[in-house]
Design brief:
- By secondary structure, the protein is an alpha+beta fold.
- The chain has two domains: 315 residues, Outer membrane efflux proteins (OEP), CATH 1.20.1600; 77 residues.
- The chain has a four-stranded antiparallel β-sheet. The chain has a two-stranded antiparallel ribbon with strand order 1-6. Strands 3-4 form a two-stranded antiparallel ribbon.
- Strand 3 and strand 4 form a beta hairpin.
- The relative contact order is 0.14.
Length: 444
């Protein structure tokens, strides 16, 4: 029995030789309202909890930046106070005791200040651009992780479904063999061990199918979680097998560019912020300069009912400067701390470069190994199919024992399952290699 047309198309669509593409028409298996990989990833980028939280964190960060810069705006304050003098102050003057003040007094004060120079505000202004960049990089990092994890989950669901189809084909074939073996036994051509073996094999395949069927449910649930997809809504997937050859291959000669890795970009931005912090501590002896304007309304009366009948205003404007002269060694210690923080981050950057290189080498080795295994299993699949066809023909003619047919059937089924496992592995390791190279496309 030859592979059906569907499986042949799938093999042709997946077979890929590096540097060459087989020309063929794209073929997809789709159902109503089914989603492609691009649609699944786009949905996740808009709805997954990780992306929502990252965008909210970005908004929080932008508000914090605005709050830190608000000190450059004029600061207005109003104060109100009232006092009842239980015993007013007295002072002897010219031999007489003079009582000062009124029983009741109150004041309303308005104060406006405008910062002219403030080292803290100056640092906040300089750092605002780097802080915004860091927030954007954090969102980018989340987008990259979302694309990779959702794509892997998508492939896992799709290829597990293919395993289920293979097991369905095997069950159909094995049921026919079981019925043939039973008929031969009933007419006395063979003993009952043939159909008993067929019964055992059929039961095992059905058990495998049940296991794979249940794993599909778990894989879809995990994909829904990554996507932020409603749990009560069905999720149907489709894939264009004509594009699989494009997605399997990757340029293994590409040299890693560390600057493309978002992790290093984040560390470089953090270093820019630390440099600004060091400069701030180096110039912390500079004065804080501000202008002010005050307007006060004073009220006095010995009768509470008449307290606010008349007011006595006064006002003033001026400029003030606060100069830190001596603060122990606090400024010196803060400067040393800032410099040491820079040194520590430099060490972290170098360690990150080494870690990225290790990640790249590991991903490249895994991809090459998985790709070779996939090609090998693909070739083994053709051989296993031919072996099964020959042994099946020989068994029908009475040349081979039924046990030989069972072995060939088992080998074929195992090779088919291994093929899809290898295909998932090479697609997954290809994503890891792209991430290591910094080539994940997040602009979908």
């Amino acid at each position: 029995m030859k592979f059906n047309t569907y499986f042949k198309h799938l093999l042709v669509g997946c077979l890929l030789v590096p540097g060459a593409l087989f020309a063929q028409e794209s073929r997809s298996v789709a159902t109503a309202d089914s989603l492609t990989l691009e649609q699944v990833v786009n949905y996740a980028l808009e709805n997954t909890a990780a992306m929502e939280q990252a965008l909210i964190d970005e908004q929080i960060g932008e508000r914090e930046i605005r709050a830190s810069l608000s000190g450059w705006f004029p600061q207005l304050n109003a104060n109100f106070g009232g006092t009842y003098n239980i015993r007013r102050p007295q002072q002897p003057i010219g031999g007489e005791i003079i009582t000062f003040g009124q029983k009741y007094n109150s004041n309303i004060a308005l104060q406006a200040t405008q910062s002219i120079f403030d080292n803290n505000l100056f640092l906040a202004s300089k750092a605002s651009r780097s802080r915004k960049l860091l927030l954007d990089q954090q969102v980018t990092d989340t987008r990259i992780n979302t694309v990779v994890e959702v794509s892997k989950a998508f492939y896992n669901v799709l290829l597990t479904q293919e395993q289920l189809r293979i097991l369905d084909q095997n069950i159909s074939r094995q049921e026919k063999q079981f019925n043939d073996a039973r008929s031969r036994y009933e007419v006395g051509l063979v003993d009952k061990t043939d159909y008993q073996r067929a019964s055992i094999t059929l039961a095992n395949i059905r058990s495998d199918r049940k296991r794979v069927q249940e794993s599909i449910k778990a894989n879809i649930a995990y994909l829904k979680q990554l996507m932020g997809y409603p749990v009560e809504q069905d999720l149907n997937l489709t894939y264009d097998y004509g594009r699989m050859e494009q997605e399997v291959q990757v340029d293994t000669t590409e040299v890693i560019a560390f600057d493309r890795r978002i992790e290093l970009q984040q560390l470089q931005t953090q270093r820019d912020l630390l440099k600004l912090n060091t400069a701030y501590n180096r110039w912390s002896f500079l004065p804080t300069v501000s202008a002010f304007a005050n307007y006060n309304l004073l009220y006095f009366s010995n009768e509470f009912a008449n307290l606010y009948n008349q007011h006595f205003p006064n006002s003033s404007v001026g400029i003030q400067a606060s100069i830190p002269i001596f603060q122990g060694t606090r400024r010196l210690q803060n400067l040393k701390i800032a410099e040491l923080q820079e040194d520590r981050l430099d060490s972290q950057i170098e360690d990150a470069r080494r870690a990225i290189n290790t990640e790249y080498q590991t991903a490249l080795a895994n991809y090459k190994g998985d790709y070779t295994e996939w090609r090998t299993v693909q070739q083994n699949l053709v051989v296993a199919e031919e072996v099964y066809e020959i042994i099946k023909l020989q068994y029908d003619e009475g040349v081979k024992a039924y046990v030989d047919l069972i072995v060939a059937e088992t080998e074929l089924r195992t090779t088919q399952i291994n093929y899809y496992n290898a295909l998932y592995s090479v697609l997954s390791s290809k994503l890891d290699l792209q991430r290591a190279l910094g080539n994940i496309d997040i602009n979908r």
